[in-house]
Amino acid sequence: MAPVKSSIGFLLIISGCLMLGLIQNGEAQVMCPQFCVSASYMMCKATGHEHVAPACNCCLVQGQGCTIYLSDGSKMRCD
């Protein structure tokens, strides 16, 4: 009976190590700040020259080729 218990314990330890390895190798999550800029509109590469509702900040549209046009006339490029 002792070899069976030690085998089960060994399998549990190996399974736990594998699960932890899978969790640690997952994709990194991006944390976006929770503030909104005073924006009038936004344009992205996918929308061409169409004005769309602006995102709160660049973090939310990162990598989509968007530009947020602020209400003071300036703009934020979100590359």
UniProtKB/TrEMBL annotation:
SUPFAM superfamilies recorded: Plant proteinase inhibitors
Signal sequence bounds: 1-28
Keyword S-adenosyl-L-methionine recorded: no
Keyword Signal recorded: yes
Gene Ontology MF: a single term: serine-type endopeptidase inhibitor activity
PROSITE patterns the UniProt entry points to: PROKAR_LIPOPROTEIN (PS51257)
Keywords: Protease inhibitor, Serine protease inhibitor, Signal
Superkingdom of this protein's organism: Eukaryota
Family label: Belongs to the protease inhibitor I20 (potato type II proteinase inhibitor) family.
Protein name: Uncharacterized protein
Lineage start: Eukaryota, Viridiplantae, Streptophyta, Embryophyta, Tracheophyta
